[in-house]
Amino acid sequence: MATDVGGGEIGTDLLPSQGIDTMAILYREIKESEVDADNLKVYFDLRQAADIAAPATSEGGNQPQVSVNGGAWTNTGIGTLTHVGNGLYYASLSAASVLQNSNIGDIIHTRYKSVNTIEARGTSIKVVENMDGYTVEKILKTLLSFAAGVTAGGGSNSITFKSPDGDFDRISMSTDNNGNRTSVTLSHAEA
Length: 191
What we know:
about 190 residues; mainly beta; Immunoglobulin-like; 2 domains; 4-stranded antiparallel beta sheet; 2 helices; elongated; disordered N terminus
């Protein structure tokens, strides 16, 4: 099950293969062919082992791990940690070794632990189908604009469907004199 959270999609799945049948795991969806470095980042909130309330701030360059569908943890397929600040770190999944070797529906879990930190689960990823470059979020925004968005240009050869609040153009169409579409432009920008 996936839910739009404003900056992407998250969802939950159960992990019966790991014996965790009562705990839901949160995941973020990534397209099967994703290569954008920003979209391949997974995040970790690292805390000190000696004081679990205190952020761990010296773990940059260390190696987190991945597990695909509850398989063995491995260092392969994920880069080293980069410290953002106050214990927040990210590492990038390798498109070549993780996503291209995964199947649609696979769940990729991430973790990190050192002698200085407590065990930290990072972002979990669900590999989803690339629908001609459109994410589920983009498709839903387009459909919502068409069904419930503010329109402009009715009765002319140029029609625009905006987001329901009227702030963003989502669909811009040109038509001939018979009302047939001659061009369609979709936009998912938020600014």
